[in-house]
Amino acid sequence: RRGDGTYFRFSTGGGIAVHSAPDITGPWEYKGAVLPDGTSIKLWDGKMDAWAPDVHLVGDTYYLYYSAVRAVVFDGHNLAAVGVATSTTMDIGSWKDLGSTGVQSKDSSEYNAIDPNLFIEDGRSYMIFGSYVDGIFQVTMENPPATATPNTYAKLAYEPAGNHANEGPNMFKHGDYNYLFFSNGVCCSFDTSKPAAG
Asked: Which intervals of the chain form a coiled coil (predicted)?
């Protein structure tokens, strides 16, 4: 929510589609795209998509982090990057794409650079991300938080069984504890020979 009370909603696809509303209950109106011409990140010769936006106000600037991925059906390749765009208003046309934060992955990477989430604690910024293939990771961010600090990566969570499908992390602080939320498992590999529970 912006200081004037306007609510904003950002979504995967369409260059990071933006809707706004005067109240959280609506009515919601499509405003345009953060990246109408697509991301400036180019990791291969084909088209790149922008996924999983995460927006935070840091000082007087809004930072929108996104996953830049190959615009193809997932084929086992980990060619991805975490990008960032900034704005002081969140209005369409005000976003500046700064490109990659430096969090990038390729087929030989331990992680997949997707699903970014900024977490700030005691004035330090961290990017929580990943990963679907090998766990949830964290990296320290510079100040301002547009660039990852090299050699500060740490694995936060890992599913040792199956296909290691952890992704979509979000970290929150409540009281003295930090809470890491993430999805686990595969959406479409359930046993269709049994009825759903309940």
From this structure: none
- Domains of the chain: which residue ranges? 34-184
Cα–chain-centroid distance for residue 193? 35
Are 168 and 183 within 8 A, CB to CB? yes
Q: Is 154 strand, coil or helix?
A: strand
Q: Omega before 183 cis (within 30°)?
A: no
- Cβ contact 66:51 at 8 Å: yes
CA atoms within 13 A of residue 164's CA, in its CB half-sphere: 13
As a whole number of angstroms, the distance between CA 42 and CA 101 comes to 13
CATH architecture for the domain at 34-184: 5 Propeller (2.115)
Q: What is the pTM of this model?
A: 0.89
Quote the pLDDT of residue 45: 81
* CA 17 – CA 35 distance, rounded (Å): 8
- Say whether pLDDT at 198 is over 60: no
CA angle, corner 103, sides to 127 and 143, nearest 5?
50
C-alpha–C-alpha distance, residues 81 and 113, integer Å: 5
Question: Model confidence at 70, in pLDDT bands (50, 70, 90)?
Answer: confident
